[in-house]
Amino acid sequence: MYRFLFILVFFLCNSIFSQVAVKILEEETDQSITFNAFNTLDEPVEITFRLSETVGLEYDGSPVVKLVPPGETLKVIQLNKTQPQIGFTYDYHQVLMPTKAYDETEFKKYETGIVVFSKDGCSRCSYATDYLSRNKVDFTLLNFSKNPVFGEYMWDKLAAQGHLGNQIRTPVIMVNGEISHSHENLKQFVKDLR
Question: Rounded to the nearest 5°, which phi and psi values hold at 84?
């Protein structure tokens, strides 16, 4: 009985993890080659695409990271040819992105005005919010210790603006959709918000 269950679990896991979520499609013309990513799943997938051993293509060697929406085809990269005969190899890494826990359209309201992302026990957060309150500056406080969805939204905004790490100094402050963090001179930054 246990042997049967082990075999069943093994085959189920193997089939789930061996599924190719994103297929790379090539389109070649006389002047260029385009690599597109087709997401076969109902979930967004982030891919990191790299070319190597390129011959006859203008390519700087940088990996390309794209978020491919569910069921859609997205252009990853288009490269110009430098000669008629080309050669290349590529590989890509794919990561299934979880569905967002928040409604993006509902959160659009936070992209105007001042938003302070804070967490419990953060003295810098307390300083910023107390200063803004005392000086009658309108702002929205989103405490991600109390509501983790605010934290997910904050990290998505940071990633969209190029922050690739997972460490920041709070508070994170967003002004009209532009997010900033790890302020060296928080007192001056908050003062300038008046």
Answer: -65, -40
